[in-house]
Design a protein that fits this description.
alpha+beta; four-stranded antiparallel beta sheet; two-stranded antiparallel ribbon; about 40% strand
Length: about 110
Amino acid sequence: MRGGTGNDFHATVPVDERIVRFIGRHHVLTLATTVDDVPHCSSLFYAYLPEQNLFAVTSAGNTWHVAQLQRNARVAAAVVLETKLVGKVQGLQVRGPDVPSLRQGTCGS
């Protein structure tokens, strides 16, 4: 999934270094998918490829989110810093197309 904020963008738009550092300090994202107005969220480990502005994830082919991705490639995701202090919540929200291999159901097992 390529990162995007507001309007989708890809590696041709420089990503603020503070965002890259934030992403690098974490390893789990919440992936949101939807088909026929049925939303679904799942937590996935990720690797961020900054040179491509890409979140790489793998998942079993028999999961609900992969089934939804095969029907609708538009996704959203969030990475959040967990804290017990309400005013200190930090996070990143992105939207964009999923990784083509997920859409094709050829991801890891």
